[in-house]
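Entry 12.
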Amino acid sequence: MPHGPMLRRPLWSSLLISACVPTQASQRELRRGDDLATLTIPGIQEIQAMDLGIDRVSLSLMRSSDTKKTYDKESKKVSDSIAVSAPPGEYQLSLNYFAGGEAVLSTANCVSKALKFNLTRNKPGDVNGFPVTLCFKDQRPWEPVTNDSPDPNIQLANQKRLRDNFSTGINLAWVDFARDVGTGAPNLAEIKRQLSQVAAAGGTVARIWLHTDGSLTPEYEGARVLGPGAYTIKDLTKILDVAATQKVQLMLTLWSFDMLRSELKKKDSGRVAANRLLLTDAKHMRDYLDRALTPMVYAVRSHPALHSWDVINEPEGMTTAENWGNVEATDRVDLAAVQTFVNKIAGRIHHIAPSNLVTVGAVSMKYLNKNLSTGNIYSDEALVKAGKDPMGYLDFYQVHYYANKGKENSPFQNAASSFGFDKPIYVGEFDMKEYLEFELTSPRLTYDKLKQLGYHGVLGWKDASIQAMPLMLNAMTYLQNPAPTINDPDLCTNFGGGHGKPFFVSETLYRKKSPTSGSAVEDWCIVE
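Predicted 3D structure (C-alpha coordinates):
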Protein backbone atom coordinates (compact mmCIF):
# COMPACT_ATOMS: atom_id res chain seq x y z
CA MET A 1 0.00 0.00 0.00
CA PRO A 2 1.24 3.55 -0.66
CA HIS A 3 2.98 5.50 2.03
CA GLY A 4 2.62 9.16 2.90
CA PRO A 5 -0.29 11.26 4.07
CA MET A 6 -3.76 10.07 3.11
CA LEU A 7 -6.37 12.31 1.50
CA ARG A 8 -10.09 11.77 1.96
CA ARG A 9 -12.57 14.36 0.78
CA PRO A 10 -15.96 14.79 2.39
CA LEU A 11 -18.45 12.07 1.53
CA TRP A 12 -20.84 14.69 0.29
CA SER A 13 -18.41 16.16 -2.25
CA SER A 14 -18.57 15.18 -5.91
CA LEU A 15 -16.29 12.52 -7.37
CA LEU A 16 -14.99 13.19 -10.85
CA ILE A 17 -13.38 10.10 -12.35
CA SER A 18 -11.06 11.02 -15.19
CA ALA A 19 -9.29 8.77 -17.66
CA CYS A 20 -5.54 8.27 -17.66
CA VAL A 21 -2.98 6.39 -19.71
CA PRO A 22 -2.61 2.77 -18.59
CA THR A 23 0.65 3.34 -16.72
CA GLN A 24 -0.95 5.84 -14.34
CA ALA A 25 -3.31 5.26 -11.42
CA SER A 26 -6.66 5.62 -13.19
CA GLN A 27 -10.29 5.29 -12.13
CA ARG A 28 -11.24 3.84 -15.51
CA GLU A 29 -10.10 3.72 -19.09
CA LEU A 30 -12.01 3.84 -22.35
CA ARG A 31 -10.09 2.42 -25.30
CA ARG A 32 -10.82 1.16 -28.82
CA GLY A 33 -10.39 -2.40 -30.08
CA ASP A 34 -10.55 -3.52 -33.70
CA ASP A 35 -14.31 -4.12 -33.63
CA LEU A 36 -15.27 -3.32 -30.04
CA ALA A 37 -14.45 -0.57 -27.56
CA THR A 38 -13.68 -1.67 -24.01
CA LEU A 39 -14.55 0.19 -20.83
CA THR A 40 -12.24 -0.78 -17.94
CA ILE A 41 -12.79 0.25 -14.33
CA PRO A 42 -9.93 -0.55 -11.93
CA GLY A 43 -10.78 -2.22 -8.63
CA ILE A 44 -11.21 -0.32 -5.40
CA GLN A 45 -8.60 -0.55 -2.68
CA GLU A 46 -8.95 -3.59 -0.45
CA ILE A 47 -9.21 -1.52 2.74
CA GLN A 48 -12.09 0.48 1.27
CA ALA A 49 -13.91 -2.69 0.25
CA MET A 50 -13.58 -4.06 3.79
CA ASP A 51 -14.60 -0.74 5.34
CA LEU A 52 -17.80 -0.67 3.27
CA GLY A 53 -18.38 -4.43 3.37
CA ILE A 54 -18.22 -4.62 -0.43
CA ASP A 55 -18.04 -8.15 -1.83
CA ARG A 56 -19.25 -7.82 -5.45
CA VAL A 57 -19.14 -5.34 -8.35
CA SER A 58 -21.21 -5.14 -11.50
CA LEU A 59 -20.68 -3.01 -14.60
CA SER A 60 -23.33 -2.66 -17.29
CA LEU A 61 -23.57 -0.80 -20.60
CA MET A 62 -27.07 -0.44 -22.09
CA ARG A 63 -27.33 0.72 -25.67
CA SER A 64 -29.43 3.83 -26.13
CA SER A 65 -30.85 2.68 -29.46
CA ASP A 66 -34.16 0.96 -29.88
CA THR A 67 -32.57 -2.43 -29.30
CA LYS A 68 -31.70 -1.54 -25.66
CA LYS A 69 -29.09 -4.28 -25.83
CA THR A 70 -27.06 -4.66 -22.62
CA TYR A 71 -23.42 -5.62 -22.19
CA ASP A 72 -22.49 -6.42 -18.61
CA LYS A 73 -19.97 -8.05 -16.31
CA GLU A 74 -19.99 -9.01 -12.63
CA SER A 75 -17.09 -9.94 -10.37
CA LYS A 76 -16.43 -10.87 -6.73
CA LYS A 77 -12.84 -9.68 -7.05
CA VAL A 78 -13.63 -6.06 -6.24
CA SER A 79 -9.96 -5.08 -5.94
CA ASP A 80 -9.34 -6.20 -9.55
CA SER A 81 -10.38 -4.20 -12.58
CA ILE A 82 -13.63 -5.01 -14.36
CA ALA A 83 -14.14 -4.49 -18.10
CA VAL A 84 -17.00 -4.58 -20.62
CA SER A 85 -16.59 -4.54 -24.41
CA ALA A 86 -19.25 -3.32 -26.82
CA PRO A 87 -19.64 -2.05 -30.39
CA PRO A 88 -19.35 1.70 -30.89
CA GLY A 89 -22.47 3.72 -30.12
CA GLU A 90 -24.29 5.61 -27.39
CA TYR A 91 -24.61 3.81 -24.04
CA GLN A 92 -25.95 4.30 -20.57
CA LEU A 93 -23.55 3.18 -17.85
CA SER A 94 -24.50 1.48 -14.59
CA LEU A 95 -21.85 0.72 -11.96
CA ASN A 96 -22.77 -0.96 -8.66
CA TYR A 97 -20.80 -2.12 -5.62
CA PHE A 98 -22.67 -4.58 -3.42
CA ALA A 99 -22.42 -5.55 0.25
CA GLY A 100 -24.45 -8.72 0.47
CA GLY A 101 -27.60 -8.03 -1.52
CA GLU A 102 -27.48 -4.26 -1.03
CA ALA A 103 -26.01 -1.88 -3.60
CA VAL A 104 -23.90 0.19 -1.21
CA LEU A 105 -22.55 2.41 -3.99
CA SER A 106 -24.25 2.94 -7.34
CA THR A 107 -24.41 5.39 -10.19
CA ALA A 108 -28.19 4.93 -10.01
CA ASN A 109 -28.29 6.40 -6.48
CA CYS A 110 -27.08 9.80 -7.64
CA VAL A 111 -29.42 12.70 -8.24
CA SER A 112 -27.92 13.47 -11.62
CA LYS A 113 -29.46 12.09 -14.79
CA ALA A 114 -28.49 8.68 -16.17
CA LEU A 115 -24.88 8.66 -17.34
CA LYS A 116 -24.68 8.43 -21.13
CA PHE A 117 -21.61 8.48 -23.34
CA ASN A 118 -20.57 7.77 -26.93
CA LEU A 119 -18.32 4.81 -27.54
CA THR A 120 -16.69 5.83 -30.84
CA ARG A 121 -13.98 4.55 -33.16
CA ASN A 122 -10.80 6.58 -32.64
CA LYS A 123 -7.21 6.08 -33.62
CA PRO A 124 -5.58 3.03 -31.99
CA GLY A 125 -4.42 3.73 -28.47
CA ASP A 126 -6.64 6.75 -27.93
CA VAL A 127 -8.07 7.08 -24.41
CA ASN A 128 -11.29 8.99 -23.85
CA GLY A 129 -12.79 10.07 -20.55
CA PHE A 130 -16.09 10.93 -18.96
CA PRO A 131 -17.22 11.89 -15.44
CA VAL A 132 -18.65 9.20 -13.13
CA THR A 133 -20.20 9.73 -9.72
CA LEU A 134 -20.99 6.92 -7.28
CA CYS A 135 -23.45 7.59 -4.47
CA PHE A 136 -24.79 5.99 -1.33
CA LYS A 137 -28.52 5.20 -1.11
CA ASP A 138 -29.21 8.57 0.51
CA GLN A 139 -27.69 10.22 -2.61
CA ARG A 140 -24.48 11.34 -0.88
CA PRO A 141 -21.58 11.05 -3.35
CA TRP A 142 -18.66 8.87 -2.33
CA GLU A 143 -14.99 9.53 -2.77
CA PRO A 144 -12.34 6.90 -2.28
CA VAL A 145 -9.37 7.18 0.03
CA THR A 146 -6.27 7.79 -2.03
CA ASN A 147 -3.81 6.87 0.70
CA ASP A 148 -4.58 4.52 3.54
CA SER A 149 -1.22 3.98 5.23
CA PRO A 150 0.07 5.78 8.34
CA ASP A 151 2.56 8.56 7.75
CA PRO A 152 5.46 7.99 10.18
CA ASN A 153 6.35 11.69 10.10
CA ILE A 154 2.87 12.65 11.30
CA GLN A 155 2.93 9.93 13.95
CA LEU A 156 6.30 11.07 15.28
CA ALA A 157 5.21 14.72 15.30
CA ASN A 158 2.04 13.84 17.22
CA GLN A 159 3.94 11.85 19.83
CA LYS A 160 6.60 14.55 20.22
CA ARG A 161 3.87 17.12 20.82
CA LEU A 162 2.43 14.93 23.59
CA ARG A 163 5.77 14.13 25.23
CA ASP A 164 6.99 17.72 25.19
CA ASN A 165 3.88 19.17 26.85
CA PHE A 166 2.72 17.76 30.19
CA SER A 167 -1.06 18.22 30.21
CA THR A 168 -3.23 18.73 33.27
CA GLY A 169 -6.96 19.13 33.56
CA ILE A 170 -10.20 17.55 34.62
CA ASN A 171 -12.95 15.22 33.57
CA LEU A 172 -15.67 17.70 32.89
CA ALA A 173 -17.41 14.50 31.73
CA TRP A 174 -20.91 15.89 31.50
CA VAL A 175 -23.16 18.66 32.73
CA ASP A 176 -26.23 16.76 31.51
CA PHE A 177 -25.49 13.05 31.08
CA ALA A 178 -25.52 12.04 27.38
CA ARG A 179 -27.27 15.33 26.52
CA ASP A 180 -24.51 17.94 26.39
CA VAL A 181 -24.67 17.74 22.59
CA GLY A 182 -27.77 17.10 20.54
CA THR A 183 -30.46 19.21 22.20
CA GLY A 184 -29.67 22.51 20.52
CA ALA A 185 -29.24 24.15 23.92
CA PRO A 186 -26.02 23.03 25.64
CA ASN A 187 -25.35 24.56 29.05
CA LEU A 188 -22.54 26.78 27.81
CA ALA A 189 -22.54 28.94 30.95
CA GLU A 190 -21.77 26.00 33.24
CA ILE A 191 -19.21 24.57 30.84
CA LYS A 192 -17.50 27.95 30.64
CA ARG A 193 -17.53 28.30 34.44
CA GLN A 194 -15.73 25.01 34.93
CA LEU A 195 -13.25 25.56 32.11
CA SER A 196 -12.40 29.02 33.41
CA GLN A 197 -11.48 27.46 36.76
CA VAL A 198 -9.28 24.91 35.01
CA ALA A 199 -7.51 27.66 33.09
CA ALA A 200 -7.00 29.77 36.22
CA ALA A 201 -5.32 26.79 37.93
CA GLY A 202 -2.95 26.29 35.00
CA GLY A 203 -4.86 23.38 33.42
CA THR A 204 -4.99 22.89 29.67
CA VAL A 205 -7.29 19.93 28.92
CA ALA A 206 -10.82 18.82 29.83
CA ARG A 207 -12.41 15.51 28.90
CA ILE A 208 -16.07 15.72 27.82
CA TRP A 209 -18.46 12.93 26.80
CA LEU A 210 -20.55 13.10 23.61
CA HIS A 211 -22.78 10.16 22.56
CA THR A 212 -22.07 8.41 25.88
CA ASP A 213 -24.87 5.79 25.89
CA GLY A 214 -26.43 6.73 22.56
CA SER A 215 -29.75 7.67 24.12
CA LEU A 216 -29.84 11.02 22.28
CA THR A 217 -27.07 10.92 19.69
CA PRO A 218 -26.30 9.69 17.12
CA GLU A 219 -29.64 9.71 15.31
CA TYR A 220 -31.12 6.27 14.74
CA GLU A 221 -33.93 4.94 12.59
CA GLY A 222 -34.70 1.59 14.11
CA ALA A 223 -31.33 -0.09 14.51
CA ARG A 224 -29.53 1.90 11.79
CA VAL A 225 -27.62 5.14 12.34
CA LEU A 226 -28.93 7.94 10.12
CA GLY A 227 -26.64 10.80 11.13
CA PRO A 228 -24.95 12.59 14.01
CA GLY A 229 -28.23 14.18 15.12
CA ALA A 230 -29.82 17.45 14.09
CA TYR A 231 -27.99 19.63 16.63
CA THR A 232 -24.92 17.53 17.43
CA ILE A 233 -22.37 19.33 15.28
CA LYS A 234 -23.77 22.78 16.12
CA ASP A 235 -23.69 22.03 19.86
CA LEU A 236 -20.21 20.53 19.69
CA THR A 237 -18.89 23.53 17.79
CA LYS A 238 -20.38 25.92 20.34
CA ILE A 239 -18.77 24.00 23.20
CA LEU A 240 -15.39 24.00 21.45
CA ASP A 241 -15.75 27.73 20.82
CA VAL A 242 -16.31 28.30 24.55
CA ALA A 243 -13.25 26.18 25.37
CA ALA A 244 -11.17 28.23 22.95
CA THR A 245 -12.08 31.44 24.78
CA GLN A 246 -10.66 29.87 27.97
CA LYS A 247 -7.58 28.50 26.19
CA VAL A 248 -8.50 24.96 27.25
CA GLN A 249 -8.59 22.07 24.79
CA LEU A 250 -11.16 19.28 24.87
CA MET A 251 -10.71 15.53 24.73
CA LEU A 252 -13.91 14.39 23.02
CA THR A 253 -15.08 11.04 24.39
CA LEU A 254 -17.45 9.58 21.82
CA TRP A 255 -18.88 6.55 23.62
CA SER A 256 -18.88 4.84 27.01
CA PHE A 257 -19.53 1.30 28.22
CA ASP A 258 -22.90 2.83 29.21
CA MET A 259 -24.02 2.07 25.65
CA LEU A 260 -24.77 -1.50 26.82
CA ARG A 261 -25.68 -0.73 30.41
CA SER A 262 -28.70 -2.48 31.92
CA GLU A 263 -30.01 0.86 33.22
CA LEU A 264 -30.37 2.05 29.61
CA LYS A 265 -31.90 -1.28 28.61
CA LYS A 266 -34.70 -0.83 31.15
CA LYS A 267 -35.54 2.52 29.55
CA ASP A 268 -34.94 1.59 25.92
CA SER A 269 -34.05 -2.01 25.14
CA GLY A 270 -34.05 -1.23 21.42
CA ARG A 271 -31.30 1.33 21.84
CA VAL A 272 -29.04 -1.16 23.64
CA ALA A 273 -29.69 -3.68 20.86
CA ALA A 274 -28.83 -1.06 18.21
CA ASN A 275 -25.72 0.02 20.10
CA ARG A 276 -24.58 -3.59 20.36
CA LEU A 277 -24.86 -3.98 16.59
CA LEU A 278 -22.27 -1.21 16.22
CA LEU A 279 -19.90 -3.53 18.05
CA THR A 280 -20.83 -6.75 16.30
CA ASP A 281 -22.12 -6.01 12.78
CA ALA A 282 -19.98 -4.47 10.05
CA LYS A 283 -22.94 -2.95 8.20
CA HIS A 284 -24.19 -1.09 11.28
CA MET A 285 -20.70 0.10 12.12
CA ARG A 286 -20.35 1.35 8.55
CA ASP A 287 -23.54 3.37 8.97
CA TYR A 288 -22.11 5.05 12.06
CA LEU A 289 -18.75 5.76 10.42
CA ASP A 290 -20.23 7.18 7.22
CA ARG A 291 -23.30 8.96 8.50
CA ALA A 292 -22.37 10.20 11.99
CA LEU A 293 -18.66 10.15 12.70
CA THR A 294 -17.41 11.40 9.34
CA PRO A 295 -19.46 14.64 9.35
CA MET A 296 -18.44 15.30 12.97
CA VAL A 297 -14.74 14.88 12.24
CA TYR A 298 -14.87 17.05 9.13
CA ALA A 299 -16.68 19.75 11.09
CA VAL A 300 -14.21 20.14 13.96
CA ARG A 301 -10.95 18.51 12.85
CA SER A 302 -9.16 21.88 12.64
CA HIS A 303 -10.75 23.56 15.65
CA PRO A 304 -8.06 25.08 17.92
CA ALA A 305 -9.83 23.74 21.02
CA LEU A 306 -9.76 20.12 19.84
CA HIS A 307 -7.22 18.15 21.86
CA SER A 308 -8.09 14.60 20.86
CA TRP A 309 -10.76 11.99 20.20
CA ASP A 310 -11.35 9.41 22.92
CA VAL A 311 -13.10 6.52 21.14
CA ILE A 312 -14.81 5.05 24.19
CA ASN A 313 -14.73 5.24 27.96
CA GLU A 314 -13.77 2.01 29.77
CA PRO A 315 -15.00 -0.35 27.04
CA GLU A 316 -13.65 -3.40 28.87
CA GLY A 317 -16.47 -2.95 31.38
CA MET A 318 -19.03 -4.16 28.83
CA THR A 319 -17.04 -7.27 27.88
CA THR A 320 -16.85 -10.85 29.05
CA ALA A 321 -13.33 -10.05 30.27
CA GLU A 322 -14.68 -7.88 33.13
CA ASN A 323 -18.26 -9.18 33.57
CA TRP A 324 -19.52 -6.01 35.22
CA GLY A 325 -22.86 -6.47 36.89
CA ASN A 326 -24.36 -3.34 35.32
CA VAL A 327 -24.21 -4.95 31.85
CA GLU A 328 -26.41 -7.99 31.32
CA ALA A 329 -24.56 -11.18 30.42
CA THR A 330 -26.41 -11.54 27.10
CA ASP A 331 -25.36 -8.04 26.06
CA ARG A 332 -21.66 -8.33 26.81
CA VAL A 333 -19.21 -8.59 23.93
CA ASP A 334 -15.70 -9.98 23.75
CA LEU A 335 -12.53 -7.91 23.71
CA ALA A 336 -12.04 -8.57 20.00
CA ALA A 337 -15.27 -6.68 19.28
CA VAL A 338 -13.96 -3.72 21.27
CA GLN A 339 -10.64 -3.81 19.42
CA THR A 340 -12.44 -3.80 16.05
CA PHE A 341 -14.68 -0.94 17.20
CA VAL A 342 -11.65 1.10 18.26
CA ASN A 343 -9.72 0.29 15.10
CA LYS A 344 -12.57 1.30 12.79
CA ILE A 345 -13.30 4.58 14.55
CA ALA A 346 -9.65 5.55 14.99
CA GLY A 347 -9.07 4.63 11.35
CA ARG A 348 -11.88 6.81 10.06
CA ILE A 349 -10.63 9.77 12.11
CA HIS A 350 -7.08 9.33 10.85
CA HIS A 351 -8.21 8.87 7.23
CA ILE A 352 -9.90 12.26 7.43
CA ALA A 353 -7.49 14.06 9.76
CA PRO A 354 -4.14 12.25 10.18
CA SER A 355 -2.88 14.87 12.65
CA ASN A 356 -5.87 14.52 14.99
CA LEU A 357 -4.98 12.60 18.15
CA VAL A 358 -6.91 9.44 19.08
CA THR A 359 -6.97 7.51 22.35
CA VAL A 360 -9.12 5.12 24.43
CA GLY A 361 -9.90 5.33 28.15
CA ALA A 362 -8.79 1.87 29.33
CA VAL A 363 -10.34 0.75 32.62
CA SER A 364 -7.12 -0.71 33.98
CA MET A 365 -3.40 -0.91 33.33
CA LYS A 366 -3.74 -4.67 32.75
CA TYR A 367 -5.13 -3.98 29.27
CA LEU A 368 -2.15 -1.80 28.36
CA ASN A 369 0.69 -3.66 30.07
CA LYS A 370 2.72 -5.50 27.45
CA ASN A 371 4.55 -7.36 30.20
CA LEU A 372 1.42 -9.36 31.08
CA SER A 373 0.34 -12.52 29.25
CA THR A 374 -2.61 -10.67 27.68
CA GLY A 375 -0.29 -7.96 26.36
CA ASN A 376 -1.34 -4.49 25.28
CA ILE A 377 -4.70 -4.97 23.55
CA TYR A 378 -4.51 -1.43 22.14
CA SER A 379 -1.11 -1.72 20.47
CA ASP A 380 -0.99 -0.94 16.75
CA GLU A 381 -0.48 -4.61 15.96
CA ALA A 382 -3.43 -5.77 18.08
CA LEU A 383 -5.86 -3.16 16.75
CA VAL A 384 -4.98 -3.61 13.08
CA LYS A 385 -5.17 -7.38 13.44
CA ALA A 386 -8.70 -7.04 14.82
CA GLY A 387 -10.18 -4.39 12.50
CA LYS A 388 -7.88 -4.58 9.46
CA ASP A 389 -7.55 -0.79 9.07
CA PRO A 390 -3.87 0.24 9.18
CA MET A 391 -4.93 3.79 10.05
CA GLY A 392 -6.81 2.56 13.12
CA TYR A 393 -4.06 3.15 15.66
CA LEU A 394 -3.90 5.21 18.87
CA ASP A 395 -1.66 8.26 19.19
CA PHE A 396 -1.41 7.91 22.95
CA TYR A 397 -2.59 5.52 25.63
CA GLN A 398 -4.91 6.49 28.45
CA VAL A 399 -5.42 4.56 31.66
CA HIS A 400 -7.98 4.96 34.45
CA TYR A 401 -7.13 3.99 38.00
CA TYR A 402 -9.11 3.40 41.18
CA ALA A 403 -7.67 1.85 44.30
CA ASN A 404 -9.66 -1.38 43.93
CA LYS A 405 -7.54 -2.23 40.89
CA GLY A 406 -4.52 -2.99 43.10
CA LYS A 407 -1.08 -1.47 43.51
CA GLU A 408 0.37 -3.53 40.66
CA ASN A 409 -1.85 -1.54 38.27
CA SER A 410 -1.35 1.79 40.01
CA PRO A 411 0.27 4.64 38.09
CA PHE A 412 0.95 6.25 41.48
CA GLN A 413 3.11 3.34 42.62
CA ASN A 414 4.72 2.43 39.29
CA ALA A 415 6.72 4.54 36.87
CA ALA A 416 5.30 4.78 33.36
CA SER A 417 8.46 3.17 32.01
CA SER A 418 7.78 -0.01 34.01
CA PHE A 419 4.80 -0.90 31.80
CA GLY A 420 6.75 -0.85 28.54
CA PHE A 421 4.72 1.77 26.72
CA ASP A 422 5.73 2.58 23.16
CA LYS A 423 3.66 5.79 23.13
CA PRO A 424 2.83 8.66 25.48
CA ILE A 425 0.48 7.74 28.33
CA TYR A 426 -2.19 9.79 30.12
CA VAL A 427 -3.86 9.01 33.43
CA GLY A 428 -7.37 9.88 32.31
CA GLU A 429 -9.32 9.20 35.52
CA PHE A 430 -8.66 8.65 39.21
CA ASP A 431 -10.40 9.40 42.48
CA MET A 432 -8.80 12.36 44.28
CA LYS A 433 -10.03 11.25 47.71
CA GLU A 434 -8.09 7.96 47.40
CA TYR A 435 -4.80 9.80 47.84
CA LEU A 436 -3.95 7.80 50.97
CA GLU A 437 -4.12 4.56 48.97
CA PHE A 438 -1.73 6.27 46.55
CA GLU A 439 0.67 6.66 49.55
CA LEU A 440 0.40 10.45 49.47
CA THR A 441 -0.23 12.81 52.37
CA SER A 442 -2.51 15.14 50.39
CA PRO A 443 -4.59 15.04 47.19
CA ARG A 444 -2.70 18.19 46.22
CA LEU A 445 0.32 16.01 45.45
CA THR A 446 -1.41 13.71 42.94
CA TYR A 447 -0.72 15.52 39.66
CA ASP A 448 2.87 16.27 40.60
CA LYS A 449 3.48 12.63 41.57
CA LEU A 450 2.30 11.36 38.21
CA LYS A 451 4.45 13.90 36.40
CA GLN A 452 7.49 12.73 38.37
CA LEU A 453 6.73 9.11 37.42
CA GLY A 454 6.84 9.91 33.71
CA TYR A 455 3.18 10.18 32.70
CA HIS A 456 2.37 12.78 30.05
CA GLY A 457 -1.06 13.97 31.12
CA VAL A 458 -3.32 13.88 34.19
CA LEU A 459 -7.10 14.33 34.37
CA GLY A 460 -8.75 13.77 37.74
CA TRP A 461 -12.33 12.53 38.00
CA LYS A 462 -15.28 14.45 39.33
CA ASP A 463 -18.85 13.25 39.41
CA ALA A 464 -21.92 15.35 38.60
CA SER A 465 -21.84 16.90 42.09
CA ILE A 466 -18.42 18.41 41.28
CA GLN A 467 -17.19 17.38 44.73
CA ALA A 468 -13.60 16.79 43.67
CA MET A 469 -13.25 19.99 41.65
CA PRO A 470 -11.50 22.04 44.38
CA LEU A 471 -9.05 19.19 44.95
CA MET A 472 -8.14 19.02 41.26
CA LEU A 473 -7.74 22.78 41.06
CA ASN A 474 -5.44 22.69 44.09
CA ALA A 475 -3.37 19.91 42.52
CA MET A 476 -2.96 21.86 39.29
CA THR A 477 -2.08 25.03 41.19
CA TYR A 478 0.51 23.12 43.24
CA LEU A 479 2.34 22.23 40.03
CA GLN A 480 2.85 25.95 39.45
CA ASN A 481 3.90 26.71 43.06
CA PRO A 482 4.99 23.59 44.96
CA ALA A 483 5.10 23.87 48.76
CA PRO A 484 6.77 21.71 51.42
CA THR A 485 4.75 18.68 52.56
CA ILE A 486 3.64 17.94 56.10
CA ASN A 487 3.13 14.36 57.23
CA ASP A 488 1.93 14.51 60.82
CA PRO A 489 -1.42 12.79 61.50
CA ASP A 490 -1.72 14.59 64.83
CA LEU A 491 -1.70 18.01 63.15
CA CYS A 492 -4.75 19.38 61.40
CA THR A 493 -3.19 21.29 58.52
CA ASN A 494 -4.13 22.13 54.97
CA PHE A 495 -1.43 19.80 53.71
CA GLY A 496 -2.04 16.65 55.68
CA GLY A 497 -3.08 15.42 59.05
CA GLY A 498 -6.17 13.77 60.39
CA HIS A 499 -7.14 10.14 60.84
CA GLY A 500 -9.21 7.59 58.96
CA LYS A 501 -10.66 7.53 55.48
CA PRO A 502 -11.31 10.91 53.83
CA PHE A 503 -14.94 11.81 53.20
CA PHE A 504 -16.80 14.53 51.34
CA VAL A 505 -19.37 16.88 52.80
CA SER A 506 -20.65 19.02 49.95
CA GLU A 507 -17.49 19.98 48.03
CA THR A 508 -15.12 19.84 51.00
CA LEU A 509 -12.98 16.82 51.86
CA TYR A 510 -12.43 16.02 55.55
CA ARG A 511 -10.67 13.58 57.88
CA LYS A 512 -11.29 13.18 61.55
CA LYS A 513 -8.87 14.94 63.91
CA SER A 514 -8.43 11.77 65.98
CA PRO A 515 -9.57 8.14 65.83
CA THR A 516 -12.25 8.93 68.41
CA SER A 517 -13.54 12.16 66.85
CA GLY A 518 -17.30 12.48 66.51
CA SER A 519 -19.61 13.79 63.80
CA ALA A 520 -19.28 17.51 64.56
CA VAL A 521 -17.51 19.64 61.94
CA GLU A 522 -15.15 21.03 64.58
CA ASP A 523 -13.81 17.50 65.07
CA TRP A 524 -12.70 17.24 61.46
CA CYS A 525 -9.67 18.37 59.45
CA ILE A 526 -10.14 19.96 56.05
CA VAL A 527 -8.07 18.12 53.45
CA GLU A 528 -6.66 20.02 50.49
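Annotation: The mean pLDDT is 85. The radius of gyration is 28 Å.
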